[in-house]
Amino acid sequence: MTGDDLTVLVDRLRWDRRRDPYRGRREYSPTARRVAEECDRWVAEGRADLAVPVLRKAVDRITRALMYLDDSSGIIGDDLQELMDLYAKVCVAALPNPISLAGWLVKLECDGPGWPRVRLADFASALGKRGIAEVERLVAERARAAYPESWTGAFAVRDLREQLAEVSGDVDRYVAVLAEHLTNAVQYQGIAEALHAAGRRDEAIAWAGRGVAANSGSAYTDRLRDLLVDMLVAAGDTPGAVRVRREEFARHPTAAGYRSLIDTVETAGGDDPTTWALGVLRDRTTQQPAYASELVDVLLAVGRDDQAWREALHHRRWLGGPQWQTLLQGRAVTHPEEVIQPYRDLVEQAILNSADKRRYRRAVALLAALRAAYQAAGETAAFGRYLAELRIAHKRRPTFLKTLDAAGL
What we know:
Blueprint: H1 3-11, H2 25-44, H3 48-65, H4 75-94, H5 98-111, H6 120-145, H7 151-168, H8 171-179, H9 185-197, H10 201-214, H11 221-234, H12 238-251, H13 255-268, H14 274-287, H15 292-301, H16 305-314, H17 321-334, H18 336-352, H19 359-376, H20 380-393, H21 398-407
């Protein structure tokens, strides 16, 4: 493909904001990918300098287009990020004007809609000292002019400052910049990882511990906690590693938390925590019955199937449908007579669930498992009587009866 052909292709990435956001979106992604393929070929042929302006224009056009076209699937957003990553690769190979590149990156981050992701580390070689210094100057300028109430502006400046500190290679600077605005576990994790990579393990452990304590209820804390445990194990602090797991389990006792605790004990050593963990879960379930599902999962994990079954029966309303059916399938193997009534209850619930368009199919699927339970319990004839009763009870549901007949039960 010639340069003129590629220019025509990039022109197709224009998107008028008055255009229907759905019309033509399927053709848009293949066009973006074709641009990437051709530019990648140019790089392989040693013509990276020709790809620099083409890719920048493509990135700018897709960035703007995503403000107006529908990308609910996220496909075009992924295409844009791939083009941005390719642009970084091309810049490193071709070394465009670093001052111009710095200005474009800062403008995209600070004035753009939030995509694509700007990663200074990918452009560091292309920017060089002059370009990095220009990014520093522009970011400082933005920081002075930013409106305090502008969340997006403040975020962009902070993000670029953190990235600048990271590419500087100065660990203390990076830690200091991140520590200015500690709001989540991800920032603590960044500090801990940087210190650990620099061989400053004790400081890394201290920061990770602070982050776990400050963000105990966050979903992002799990990775930070894993990092902390790994560092404690590597440092030979077995009791400390197990204590971190125990504290989290005591705060939020779940089956996943129990598995993490067991894994740590098996790796680092320590007493079997199963009895203690089950005690914690039973106490929590008494206070908050929703934890019954976690208790059942842990009991099954440690091979206490009978206890799990009794807890499940006692706390049936707190178990989700998939978990309850898994329990029934397992119990049917050893005690088929005990699952007959629960399966009958599920069949009835499915038939009466008017909110589910596939309720009759689901009911019939359950009937197959119920028939197997009757047979395993030596009550094959009883299943036939049950089916007859079911037909009479739901004789005014012809669609159900047709579905039942089609199943050949």
